[in-house]
Design brief:
Oligomer: single chain
Number of helices: 8
Largest sheet: 2 strands, antiparallel
Number of strands: 2
Structural class: mainly alpha
Shape: elongated
């Protein structure tokens, strides 16, 4: 199974925010730059993460993105399920629909494998993912300057 690009970006954003000190936030642009993804992709993913209650976005002076407590401690499996959405691993219902779908054993086996994949993530949280050696690497990622002088992310 392969995660969608959107889920991959979402997990990297959550991990980047998980290593920030209390009271520190980053802008969407700073996060996008530090994890090397286009701003437009990061902005869409941040909106989804906010909708899921994983990230809090504050506007204005002193604003920015922070990871919520639920985002830090919630089940990684549940988060990936939410990000990936419902659907089969294989395109059984795509056009044209597979002629075997009514009697296919593969579809059920793939669905079971997909659930085992998610279940393997259920006992983990984003907070678990930023333990050493990952956390120090994430802290070392500093965004390229993109805004007005004086506004930079902590390193």
């Amino acid at each position: 199974m392969r995660l969608t690009k959107r889920t991959d970006i979402a997990l990297r954003i959550a991990m980047r925010l998980a290593v920030l000190e209390d009271g520190v936030s980053l802008t969407t642009q700073e996060v996008a730059d530090s994890i090397a993804v286009p701003y437009s992709h990061a902005a869409k993913v941040v909106a989804r993460l906010c909708h899921l209650g994983v990230v809090e976005a504050r506007r204005g002076s002193g604003g920015g993105l922070t990871l919520t407590r639920a985002g830090r401690t919630g089940s990684l499996g549940a988060l990936v399920r939410d990000l990936e959405g419902a659907g089969d691993v294989a395109g059984c219902e795509e056009s044209p629909a597979c002629p075997l779908r009514a009697a296919c054993l593969l579809r059920g086996a793939l669905r079971q494998a997909q659930e085992q994949f998610y279940a393997a993530l259920d006992h983990l949280s984003v907070g678990d993912l930023v333990a050493s050696p990952t956390g120090p690497v994430l802290l070392a990622l500093s965004p390229r300057p993109s805004g007005p002088p004086g506004r930079s992310a902590p390193a």
